[in-house]
Design a protein that fits this description.
Blueprint lengths: L1 E5 L6 H12 L4 E4 L24 E2 L6 E2 L3 E6 L13 H20 L4 E3 L2 H7 L2 H10 L7 E4 L2 H9 L6 E4 L8 E2 L2 E2 L5 E3 L13 E5 L3 E10 L2 E9 L2 H5 L8 E6 L3 H14 L3 E9 L4 E7 L8 H16 L3
Parallel strand pairs: 1-2, 1-5, 5-6
Antiparallel strand pairs: 3-4, 7-12, 8-11, 8-12, 9-10, 13-14, 13-16, 14-15, 16-17
Helix pairs in contact: 1-8
């Protein structure tokens, strides 16, 4: 039986760590990037009378995949389909839709262990839905406003303690491109008088600014939870730790029982086997949940790389 790894080549250190561990254990695996379709990946699948699953052999440049052999799938940031440049814009849109329905539809139908199923990732990736569900599961979420009304945003921020909010992106898409490079939208600290009429152009998220002792990255794999304090050593990393990884210090920490219970309930609500969450620990020692990522990476915390990798490999191998 095969473990299927769905990810981009040479761009995912987390997937590489899991693949290395599975290989060390002698677990059969196939790594495929669905984005290779149709250029370097040829797919074919049949559903016959009396059968409840698709069968077929998919040919890639490395190893072939027998759909009927897959017992677990590790879904990690696969690439977009690379279609023929000879297609017109309309034809390319149609072909991409057909590829997504065909390749994605067959893969998503596999009845096996998923870490995580892409549809469950997609639902949990909607921040407004996920934050509301987290609150229902007993986790503490800071005051949050999502709005396209500039005046509503100013009033919200002006009424907060400290009259300061964290502005952050709602979705996971990049904030456009410049000179061919994808742009990131970092968390920013804003006051009411800094909010412009541009808010009216789309939806924006403002969240109460929490004066923090540190941040916590909590990674859950099934019922196993791994957490580390993140201590910022620069002004940029204090606002958004992703802006200056070199200035960060980490310390593995315990997960309080009530947090573990809430995270477990949240994973059950979304049907997830893996989840990364970011908390801010306030001056009152309470954990404030600010971000939920069902496909978040963990490789930047040195002391947790091996334990989390082993936990994911255990799940894919069928040990948990």
């Amino acid at each position: 039986m095969t473990v299927l790894i769905l990810t981009r080549p040479n761009l995912d250190a987390v997937a590489d760590m899991v693949i290395t561990e599975l290989s060390r254990r002698g677990v059969p695996l196939v790594r495929i990037d669905p984005g290779d379709f149709p250029e370097r990946l040829a797919m074919s699948a049949r559903l016959d009378p009396g059968r409840t699953s698709w069968r077929g052999i998919w040919h890639s440049g490395h190893r072939d995949l027998d759909l009927s052999s897959v017992r677990a799938v590790y879904y990690r940031r696969p690439g977009r389909f690379r279609l023929s440049p000879e297609l017109s814009a309309d034809a390319a849109r149609w072909a991409e839709g057909e590829a997504r329905a065909g390749v994605g539809g067959v893969l998503s139908s596999l009845r096996c262990t998923w870490v995580n199923h892409p549809w469950r990732n997609a639902i949990a990736g909607f921040a407004p839905y996920a934050l509301a569900e987290a609150a229902r599961c007993g986790l503490l979420v800071p005051r949050t406003l999502i709005t396209s009304n500039p005046e509503e945003a100013r009033l919200f921020v002006d009424a907060l303690p400290g009259k300061t909010a964290a502005y952050k992106g709602i979705g996971t898409a990049p904030a456009g491109t410049h000179a061919g490079q994808r742009l990131a939208l970092w968390t920013a600290r804003v006051r009411a008088d800094e909010i412009t009429e541009a808010v009216a152009l789309t939806a924006h998220q403002f969240q109460e600014w929490v004066s923090k002792k540190c941040e916590i990255r909590l990674t859950a794999v099934g019922n196993r939870m791994f957490a580390a304090e993140i201590h910022a050593g620069s002004e940029a990393s204090r606002i958004d730790f992703r802006r200056d990884y070199d200035a960060l210090a980490y310390r593995v920490c315990e997960v309080p029982d009530h947090i573990a219970s809430g995270v477990g309930a949240l994973m059950d609500a979304f049907g997830l086997r893996y989840l990364a969450l970011d908390f801010l620990v306030g001056r009152d020692d309470r954990w404030h949940l600010v971000d939920i990522n069902p496909n978040g990476q963990y490789g930047f915390i040195p002391d947790l790389q091996q334990p989390i990798t082993h936990a994911i490999a255990d799940m894919l191998e069928g040990q948990t």
